[in-house]
């Protein structure tokens, strides 16, 4: 897949998230979309955050689909980063579209800078 930037990335991320949006908004009532669709929505939306908040002080992990570094500040190079946000694909996508806020979600956050990603959420308004 071609590496996207700027408006192309935003458009691709929006399309990917729209494809899984019924499940994101109501996971208990909607069937889980195909794995490839969930993966695309997670990876592209994580790339949007990485582009909007460049840096290496916070690692955002959405296993098994994505891990990015973002937020300017002290850089982390080896071992476990001091500032981590980790969540499931469904939680991540609910954060992306604003169905949940970071503080009210089941995302695991550690470190003093981890909550800085909340300043960039929701990434996409749908």
TrEMBL record:
Cross-referenced InterPro entries: SCP_3
Location of the Bacterial SCP orthologue domain: 35-123
Name of this protein: Sterol carrier family protein
């Amino acid at each position: 897949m071609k590496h996207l930037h700027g408006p192309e990335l935003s458009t691709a991320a929006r399309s990917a998230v729209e494809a899984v949006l019924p499940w994101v908004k109501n996971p208990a009532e909607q069937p889980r979309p195909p794995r490839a669709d969930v993966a695309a929505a997670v990876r592209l939306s994580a790339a949007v955050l990485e582009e909007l908040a460049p840096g290496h002080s916070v690692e955002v992990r959405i296993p098994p689909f994505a891990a990015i570094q973002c937020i300017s500040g002290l850089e982390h190079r080896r071992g476990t980063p001091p500032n981590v946000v980790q969540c499931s694909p469904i939680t991540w996508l609910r954060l992306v579209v604003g169905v949940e806020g970071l503080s009210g979600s089941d995302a695991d956050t550690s470190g003093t800078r981890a909550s800085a990603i909340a300043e960039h959420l929701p990434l996409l308004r749908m």
